[in-house]
Amino acid sequence: LKPENSTITIFGASGDLTHRKLIPALYHLFEANKLADDFAILGVSRTEFSDEEYREKLRQLLVKHEKTQPELVDEFFKHVYYQAVDTANAPDYEKIKTRLEELEYLHSTHGNVLYYLSTPPSLYGVIPECLAAHGLTKEGHGWKRLVVEKPFGYDLESAILLDAQIHNFFEEQQIYRIDHYLGKETVQNLLVLRFSNGLFEPLWNRNYIEYVEITGAEALGVEERGGYYDGSGAMRDMFQNHILQVLAMVAMESPAVINADSLRNEVAKVLQSLHPLNPETIEENLVLGQYTSSKVRGIEQAGYRQEKGVNPESRTETYMALRLQIDNWRWSGVPFYVRTGKRLPTRVTEIVIHFKRTPHPVFSQNAPENKLIIRVQPDEGIVMSFGLKQPGAGFKAQEVAMDFHYEDLGETTLLSGYERLLLDALNGDASLFTRSDAVQACWKFVQPILDYKAGLDAKLHGYACGTWGPKAADELMEKEGRAWRFPC
Ligand code: BG6
Fold first, then answer.
1. Within 13 Å of residue 184, how many CA atoms lie on the same side as its CB?
2. Which residues form a coiled coil (predicted)?
3. For the segment 442-480, what is each residue's pLDDT rounded down to a tens digit?
4. Which one of 155, 212, 361, 450 is most buried, counting C-beta atoms within 10 A?
């Protein structure tokens, strides 16, 4: 399905996300002939550029970092324009209005506009208001949609406030809160794996599952984003959004049909069922860590507090591990162990479903429990481990695995998260975008942890770069006779 012609208006057009993710994603969609027959991309930000200067700047970055075809690059940039605007200043939006009218004429967009907010979050409330003041949010003459980047709020209170501000000018069905993890093919595959296989779904509950692990590990540190990250930490940067969305896909009930309402109803329900943490239970279930300077493969790595833009006395966590539970019939009593962090040994996101052992050990040496490992990235795939008889005398069981790698599907190239989500937003399909109630459920669950970590008594453990986080995170599992899987 090809989207209708439209103008994609990107606020924050000279920012990192636009250069690194949005423009490459739009270019790849263009190359794959998935964009509309005609369209315009209007970059908006404060810096003064002419259309030509902006195109040139983007072109250089695109060809430097992506595989491109020169003729198509030229063709693609004929659709790109730029408008300098002080985004916080309402009268300046007259310029956007004029530009949109011009582009509607040039590219037959019929008044369809996708606004993409990729600015500092402090502008998320302001931009819709200014657009509305110039009649730029009204539907009727074409559709108007608003894509909002994370973070959607800073805590529960600010998320509720932001929601109210945006809802003054856009209806919920016009709002697309983006979480790029939901755009990942392997995250969506969780639904297909669970709900199209008679094999897994009957076992997918507290009767057969002992516990679930979710790991979102990154080898990189905070790089150039120290200033932003120091006010955020792993909890707000990764857990509140990406990790909880992945968890929802693992734990939700089956939607009756796949459409935005029914899918998002189930996501919201499971997030609303997270067992609330309180000041008495937080410490025994949570481990916070921060990377310290150390040598990785002989090379000295800076500690978090030495990173550019970071307070040298910062107490921001770059690692967190949490044991959580879901209060519903399916998951009652099943612990979910979740961890995410920067400067860990490798970049890997995976989910491990640990099935219960057989009720009675018959063989002298039983195989370890059955595990289903869902590799979200990299090396996307699924591994199922089970016990088999060791050849030879006696009955010894050993662990073996069945392995599926997405790359074995051959030529199929996976769309990146941003490609898939941009396309969905252009097609008006909100299924993979987070709904207001789900965002608030996430913040509601996270809020007691934010309160805890803001306190002076919050425990923060150091861990050396290139290790799997603080020892205390291992103890979180060990005290229940379990251990994290260490993916390589
Ligand atoms: C972003 C976070 O949302 O997700 C980053 O702000 C993090 O800190 C990134 O590195 C991880 O995304 P991915 O797709 O590389 O796993």
1. 22
2. none
3. 999 999 999 999 988 899 999 999 999 999 999 999 999
4. 212
Any catalytic annotation for residue 242?
Answer: yes
Return d(Cα 301, Cα 467) in angstroms, integer.
Answer: 12
Instruction: Report yes or no: 2 and 32 within 8 Å, Cβ to Cβ.
Output: no
Quick check: pTM over 0.90? yes
Does the annotation place 218 within a ligand binding site? yes
* Nearest-angstrom CA–CA distance, 306 and 343: 14
- Looking at this protein, which amino acid is placed at residue 321? A
Whether 163 lines ligand 1, by a CB cut-off of 6 Å, is: no
Question: Residue 369's pLDDT band (boundaries 50, 70, 90)?
Answer: confident
The ipTM of this complex is: 0.98
CB of residue 237 inside a 6 A radius of ligand 1: yes
Euclidean distance between CA atoms 61 and 49, whole angstroms = 16
Does ligand 1 lie within 6 Å of residue 179's CB atom? no
> What contacts 27, CB < 8 A, 6 or more positions away?
62, 66, 68, 72, 73, 76
